[in-house]
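## tool: complex_structure
## caller: assistant
## args:
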Amino acid sequence: MYINISLFAFYSGSGAYMGITLQYNTNDNTVKVSEAESVTALHKGFFGYMQKGVITLTPEEALYLIDIRNARSYDENGNELKFNDLAEKFKIDKLIARYCTFKDWRDRGLIIRPIEEIKGSYGRSPVKQYPSGKFQIPKYAIQGLLFPEDLVTIIDDETAGKEIYENYWLGQFGTYKAEQRGKLSKLDVYETLLMIKHCNLTLRNATEEQMIKAAKEKRDDFLLMYDVYEDWRLRGYILKTGFKFGTHFRLYMPKASPTKKGDEWVHSKHVIQVFPRKSKLLISEWARAIRVAHSVKKTFILAIPGVKSKGKKVELDFLLYHRKKEGIENPKDDKPSLLMLSLSEEEYIGGAELADSIEEAKRIGLDLLLAIADRETSVTYYRVKRIELPGSKYEYYEIEWEQP
Amino acid sequence: MYINISLFAFYSGSGAYMGITLQYNTNDNTVKVSEAESVTALHKGFFGYMQKGVITLTPEEALYLIDIRNARSYDENGNELKFNDLAEKFKIDKLIARYCTFKDWRDRGLIIRPIEEIKGSYGRSPVKQYPSGKFQIPKYAIQGLLFPEDLVTIIDDETAGKEIYENYWLGQFGTYKAEQRGKLSKLDVYETLLMIKHCNLTLRNATEEQMIKAAKEKRDDFLLMYDVYEDWRLRGYILKTGFKFGTHFRLYMPKASPTKKGDEWVHSKHVIQVFPRKSKLLISEWARAIRVAHSVKKTFILAIPGVKSKGKKVELDFLLYHRKKEGIENPKDDKPSLLMLSLSEEEYIGGAELADSIEEAKRIGLDLLLAIADRETSVTYYRVKRIELPGSKYEYYEIEWEQP
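## result:
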């Protein structure tokens, strides 16, 4: 027996959803709506699946109608199921993260549908092309001293140090933005290894292997960091520390030079953060790096190096319809725009998990939107765009803060 | 035999240091200057220790004079020791981090001296007083449902949820800045435990112990995070998520309310980051959190909870003299202003190490200045000021970005 009575409604926004009654069915753990007027309204609003005049709602839809649209749900015996009663029936991982991000999309007046509705590939995920230059190789045999505790190599041959700094922007000659202050050149640990491998640098106190060992002792992801660094460097880009911007590297386009002064000086416009596949990070920490980049108006590039392994099946959360020129997209007339991965502030995300999600979005042909619910259930969105760096074995991603 | 000849000089800033000759002494691993004119100049510039007309330099001073002041150093046999040759003689941990921060202070025209010169307590480390209010305890018996995967508790009793939100700013009723959107109240995991302990909240699906266990499974420092949260909350402060500001909590003064609208609304002015004693963090990651706070103009408060243990002796790096009304402070006429801890971007710092350093600075009676050399040897400074929160068993610190 289904109880099916319309009850009082408080929601004043859209009369169409006043007093919807939801029928919870214990047998198949579903929530249905069968009252004709409600069915019509929900169908028009792209809620649920209609079959033979009855609408079956997803858990998030049912909870949303209770929370926002004043719906009431009852079981077969006429007992009312409040939000928590109903939520407890669904055995869904991260139900609240999913619910909050679902709610936020709906609250924006936009359509959000179950991920199961994906049909084939949509071709709506354009790739950002980055130009590829050439690494200029200095032809010097230079010697440096490695300070393993500091992960710095110092070149005290003033002529050579100045030359590689001015012409290739390798190392820091003198002081940053005050090159005349001093006559040493200091290479960071990535520049050190690059120059050992490609520019005949020798260390007077360490072999290449010893140098790598020292670096790995300080940070065990050193070689993955280096891989990313070298990948861009060998394509002509200049990478320097991103410390001031809260990231691993800042990036200059090929042919950037530290000797340009005043108006000639070109600021870096990109930063690169390395997030190895095997690493795990709290979402809040992950998002923090993007925030700093955003606050200094740099494009945030994410690199996810590491060996691909067959992970478990990736589960994205929702299929999103966005705005269009006139009005909003909908499943009847339009292709979906984006895929949503629902996350919450306090959870960990792994590099592999994120990379696999992006890979899956690529397969589906839609951009991925990371939706992060904070502890106050406020939602922040980051759009992931794929980058193609010609000839690279890696994929990189621009991550953009977005207000849908 | 000491070689003692003045050589050509390139440095054009101050003629006083032209052509200084440094004498490296193998026996006691020291660098001395004995030529009268140089001794006078160095003594006036507060370099080294003078004894019987001879100046003994610290390693950083000797390296600085070579790098910046065109000094040349020689061993007993007349062989020149360039920067790296001399640096290799000193067995000093983190020599380059120390050197870069020393150099930066000197390059600013300020005096920096060895930490060994500390004499007693200086009383130049004022404590910031924070007012203490009272926690208003709601007298409800409220029931909620814990979502352990999401670390969220939902109260679906609309009246109770709204009441605790509006009067005590516990939980988020409806949606952040749109309270009318929905009728649920969502407590984060810190609010949940606070309400269990102090406000008669019961969870329908978990005991207090089970709830704590679920939280610790997600983040093992949960109880330390909670300690800090509760400490401020019980003194009347309102703490909410600091996600948008890249920190653990944002902080409102006692009596802040979420129901104030428009001009009445008071923004949070502080954020709190929790850095447990037993945790370790890359300096670059640690600094990133401060950067976000700075970019949104919030005062950054650091909390270092955890049990004190007898750590190894803390070693601060330098004693700093700063500016004064007319000119600069110096060891002859003034007390020192600050203590420097020299760090570099790529090293890890532990909560205990940082707390012990601050404790040591407190004992000495000077504020601590964290000087971080990035991979380009550019130095960023953060000043640590102690906070007193009356009745608290913890100490908290304001961390301020500073340009000396």
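## assistant note: Residues 7-92 of chain B form a domain with the MutS, DNA mismatch repair protein, domain I fold (CATH 3.40.1170.20). The first strand of chain B starts at residue 21 and ends at 25. Handing back to user.
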